[in-house]
Amino acid sequence: MNFEPSDIETTPATRKPGHYAFDVAILGAGTAGMSAFREASNHAGRIALIDGGPLGTTCARVGCMPSKLLIAAAEAAHGPRNSGLFGIDSPPPQIDGKRVMARVRSERDRFVGFVREAVESFEGVTLFSEYARFEDDNSLRLSSGRIITARAIVIATGSRPAVPQALFAAGERLIVNDDIFDWDDLPSSVAVFGAGVIGLELGQALHRLGVRVHLFGRDNRIGPLTDPEVRDYAAAAFQGEFPATWHADTHISRSGEKVVVRWSEAGEDREEEFDHVLAATGRVPNIDQIGIERTSLPTNSRAMLGYDPLSGRVGSSNIFVAGDAAFELPLLHEAADEGRIAGENAGRFPDSYRRARRTPIAVVFSDPQIALVGASHRQLVENCEKGFAIGQASFDDQGRARVMGLNRGLLRIYGEHGSGRLLGAEMIGPRAEHLAHLLAWAIEMDLTVERALQMPFYHPVLEEGLRTALRALNAALGFGPQPPLRCIDCGPGA
After folding, report:
1. Residue 469, exposed/middle/buried by CB under 10 A (0-12, 13-18, 19+)?
2. Residue 213 lies in domain
């Protein structure tokens, strides 16, 4: 890594046509930006990496890793509460909030350190620890006032929490998920607004750690689910554990140090006081403060218009977008893939190639877990020309799930009429993250339902529930008989 002042003396006014200080400039050193650099460096020699914020990626600093640390603590606290099912009586867990959060912060900082070390080890890159704004399609003004130019530019500026105006009434008691992971101790109560991934994961985790929680959603949405059957199952499962209102018109006010939330539910006016209001209401891409209006790129308030997810390129320009800034799927593995595609094309520019994307997969680390693979139910209803069939399996009485006391869940798998190809799945259930991977691999390999059924299945395992759903789907597609209620080769409870 290096910094050469002579490299940034070129300005738009003095630059000779076709001469740029850098081959590629990358805005943002998060997951997408790091991937973009690694790929661009295979095709270009002069690369600028620009990031004015703390290094460490959203995932490591305030996203997937610290949230899983909090969830792991919640699972440890929840385990003894269910031990009576197995004839083992345990005393209620004694939760030390300061120790819980100390481990979350310590391990979080460790993950962040790994990322910083990775960035600092990059060779063949000039790192600018500054923010930047576009001057034109090829020029960026750094926060120091210096200007750099590049033949191609990658926007990998990430995203930030979206906070509705109505929540501002909570004042300093309004928090976002970023704030939670800097807590020294756990509060006594939190009102969680948003029933998406962040709201479900953090809301349930805080509840299991002894925090009084109420989750408020909108339009009966639950995580990323679009299949009404799975969504209804999820609604009942979570409401059976902690207070959740899937659609409510709320009013927020202050009463001293407390936040007052008022809403109506089942025709009854309700009111509760909380220590904090958590805005888990989605994220917005960080493209509104980088001077896009000075480029030739068309945008709206939330997305880059003309963005091609298969090339990362915006229209026919020299500008590429990757990661959360693209506002496609704000997931680490998607950001890494987008960074690789955008980095390759930026490094090759003016050559630009489209690359196939991998099968979509998304997981919510709630309990039970939620997962989506391939095409969603909504996508198939709207776009599947040949039509599709559904096979399902319940985990309520599935053998291995019942043995472990984790027998809650519903799996719905979709297959294409005519071809018999696997198209997608939505599910809630035990260890859904693993079933989701098996299905994602099967869809990626373009397997038919019949071919998937030829794969080995052990006994007794949760994967037998997947086989049950595949058999039901195969019958629905007309490729096989309806499976018997208690299949002898599945073993008991399969």
Report:
1. buried
2. 165-281
Helix ranges (DSSP H) in 349-489 = 377-383, 399-404, 432-444, 449-453, 463-476
Whether residue 460 has a cis bond before it, omega within 30° of 0: yes
Report the DSSP beta bridge partners of residue 38. none
Residue 428 tokens, joined: 């809630």
How many angstroms separate the Cα of 405 from the Cα of each of 368, 397, 458? 12, 10, 19
pLDDT in tens, 273-295: 999 999 999 899 999 889 999 99
353-408 pLDDT, tens digit per residue, is: 999 999 999 999 999 999 999 999 999 999 998 999 999 999 999 999 999 999 99
- Tell me: do 35 and 150 sit in the same domain: yes
CATH of the domain at 130: 3.50.50.60
Residue 235 forms part of a structural domain: yes
Both 150 and 169 in one domain: the answer is no
Q: How far apart are CA 194 and CA 183, in angstroms?
A: 21
The answer to which of 68-77, 331-340, 465-474 has the lowest mean pLDDT is 331-340
- For 80, phi and psi rounded to 5 degrees? -60, -25
Q: Are residues 152 and 300 in the same domain?
A: yes
Cβ distance 398 to 494 under 8 Å?
Answer: yes
In a domain, 76, yes or no: no
Q: Quick one: angle between helices 31-40 and 332-348, nearest 10?
A: 30
Could you count the other beta carbons within 10 Å of the beta carbon of residue 36? 37
CA distance 160 to 308: 22
Cis check: omega of the bond before 350, within 30 degrees of 0: yes
**Number of domains comprising the chain:** 3
- Which three-class secondary structure state does DSSP give residue 346? helix
Contacts of 165 (CB under 8 A, 6+ apart): none
pTM score, two decimals?
0.92
| Alpha carbons 251 and 472: distance in angstroms, whole number | 46
3-class SS of residue 47: strand
- Averaged pLDDT, 249-275: 94
CATH number, domain of 431, equals 3.30.390.30
What is residue 169's three-state secondary structure? helix
Same domain flag for 176 and 207? yes
Residues 123 and 12 in one domain: yes
When pLDDT is averaged across residues 225-241 and rounded to a whole number, the result is 97
Q: How many Cα atoms sit within 13 Å of 304 on the Cβ side?
A: 33
Tokens of 401: 């799930």
Cα–Cα nearest to 375, from 329, 331, 422: 422
The residue with tokens 């979709």 is: 414
Residue with the two structure tokens 């595609």 = 341
Give the helix/strand (H/E) hosting 302.
none
DSSP 357: P
DSSP, collapsed to helix, strand or coil, labels residue 119 as helix
Q: List the beta bridge partners of residue 262.
A: 251, 271
Alpha helices in 209-285 (DSSP H): 228-239
- N-term to C-term CA, the chain: 56
